[in-house]
Amino acid sequence: MAEIHWFPGHMKKALINVEEKIKLVDVIVELLDSRAPLSSLNDDLAKLIQNKKRVIVLSKTDLADIEQTKKWLEYFKKNNDLVIDLDLSKPNSGKIISNCVARVGKPIWDKQKAKGMKPQPIKTMIIGIPNVGKSSLINRFAKRSAAGVENKPGFTRGQQWIKVSNEFVLLDTPGILPMNYENKKKAMNLALLGSIREDILPIEDMCRDLLDFLKFHYPDSLKARFDIENIDNFEDAINGICERRKLLSNGTYDLQRAYKLLLTEFKNGLLGQITLEWL
Ligand SMILES: Nc1nc2c(ncn2[C@@H]2O[C@H](COP(=O)(O)OP(=O)(O)OP(=O)(O)O)[C@@H](O)[C@H]2O)c(=O)[nH]1
Ligand SMILES: [Mg+2]
């Protein structure tokens, strides 16, 4: 596979914007997709935020393997103060995240009070790769649709301050991908999660990688979802999906439709709770 350098102009601008705003910000909430937390890390962003108070959120836990998420929480807790997992489809996720930001921001309020000042709203910047749930988290936090949400990478284009209360203001940011990928696997994981635009990697390569992974780690979910037996060989598995789902074109199997269907059903959690990066 050719090397991937997909770094659209708006992401470059977004990275510069984060750098410009960072001095104003009290707390960073960094979202990582719990299905591939290491692939979700962005070194370019990490450099900018290294001296800031931070809450790490493993997002989309409803789509991830519960056992693996537990292990990833422990992993990140070794080097970070506050790490939580969140299913943002649940309304109570807003309360959980606001409690965390309040905990991290308390020393700032204490300092202001000690100086005789009125405590100011904690300025919180929400960062992460595209499609990881940043705008969804803001809407839960603010208890209203303050930020645009869409299931496609790169939906949020500009930064936006959102006042939640007298205690918090939030800054939504566009998703930012790494400028370079240290390995092919990371780019592939991001594409499978829906954080890299779908047409960047060849769809057949994506399906090959996904099926290779699933047949090893989650063979039963693959067999059960598509009612297929032979999953060891890629062609047999795809043909099986075409057969079961009646994906035919002019009397032959419509492989392109099978590829799309497999990726969409995986992304939407229809194959079960699956984590692509295992500890
Ligand atoms: N199942 C599930 N879906 C989620 C969760 N959080 C967000 N989503 C969905 O993921 C998609 C992307 O969410 P956004 O909040 O727009 O993501 P974003 O990080 O703001 O994306 P960009 O603006 O593109 O960078 C939407 O379809 C959300 O409904 C979650 O915890 N579980
Ligand atoms: Mg967004």
Characterise the protein shown here.
By secondary structure, the chain is an alpha/beta fold. 45% of the residues lie in helices and 14% in strands. It has two domains: 9-172, P-loop containing nucleotide triphosphate hydrolases (Rossmann fold), CATH 3.40.50; 202-267, Conserved Hypothetical Protein Ylqf, Chain: A, domain 2. The protein has helices at 9-21, 37-40, 43-49, 66-77, 93-114, 134-142, 184-193, 203-217, 219-226, 234-245, 255-267; strands at 27-33, 53-59, 82-85, 122-128, 160-163, 168-172, 248-249, 252-253. The strands form two sheets. Strands 3-2-1-4-6-5 form a six-stranded mixed beta sheet, with helices on both faces. It has a two-stranded antiparallel ribbon with strand order 7-8. Helix 8 crosses helix 11 (255-267). The longest helix is centred in the middle third of the chain and has 22 residues, at 93-114. It is elongated, with a radius of gyration of 20 Å. The model has no long low-confidence stretch (mean pLDDT 93). Magnesium ion binds at residues 134-135, 155-156. Residues 134-135, 155-156 line the site of magnesium ion.
Order of helices and strands: HEHHEHEHEHEEHHHHEEH
- State the share of residues found in helices, binned by percent: 40-55%
Weakly predicted, low-confidence segments: none
Bound molecules: guanosine-5'-triphosphate, magnesium ion
Which topology of the largest domain does CATH recognise?
Rossmann fold
Strand content: 5-15%
* Largest β-sheet summary: 6 strands, mixed
Shape: elongated
Domain tally = 2
Known CATH architecture of the largest domain: 3-Layer(aba) Sandwich
Q: What is the rounded distance between the termini?
A: 26 Å
Mean of pLDDT: 93
Corresponding CATH superfamily of the largest domain = P-loop containing nucleotide triphosphate hydrolases
Name the CATH class of the largest domain. Alpha Beta
Radius of gyration: 20 Å
The helix count comes to 11
